[in-house]
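Lecture notes, unit on protein representations.

Consider one protein chain, 189 amino acids long.
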Amino acid sequence: MSSWEISSSNFSQETKLPLSPQLVEDNAFQPCRKNMGEVEEKSKDIIKCTAEKLSVDEVSQLVISPMCGAVSLFVGTTRNNFEGEKVISLEYEAYIPMAENEIRKICSDIRQKWPVKHIAVFHRLGLVPVSEASIVIAVSSVHRAASLAAVSYAIDTLKAKVPIWKKEMYEESSSSWKRNKECFWATSD
């Protein structure tokens, strides 16, 4: 049995993670049609902003569906350098209700553009050391083109519109709040 078969066989549709105040799940979308006796499965958007370490496997498992042949992921990690400076960690801050609302809008936009099944967007807050994930986006769809396009759109739009702020912490005890060049409210120098 391959590692993919092992990991997917350990997950059932009935398995659900406990909801926390920071986990938002939206099942208000239209259910899929039943085909040859398949169980009806509603589309879901799972959004979480958390100070906890992110698990790529956990997020990807949330979007797996027997109706889909593709799960596409984006994992953004803290790199150890920026413009010649040695970065030791990033620090993220957000106004969570507004951030989650903007992410919900992104999920809605994705559903208008591509035929996707499930969407999960998890963003880390607080300190994120080098090599750890700051964001994990997972999207499932019947075919790969839709989920790949949706993941790319999700990260680009999130960086442009969602009020999450990033501070780079440097080795020599200095730090710098970073402006997203994609952010629509940022002014050019």
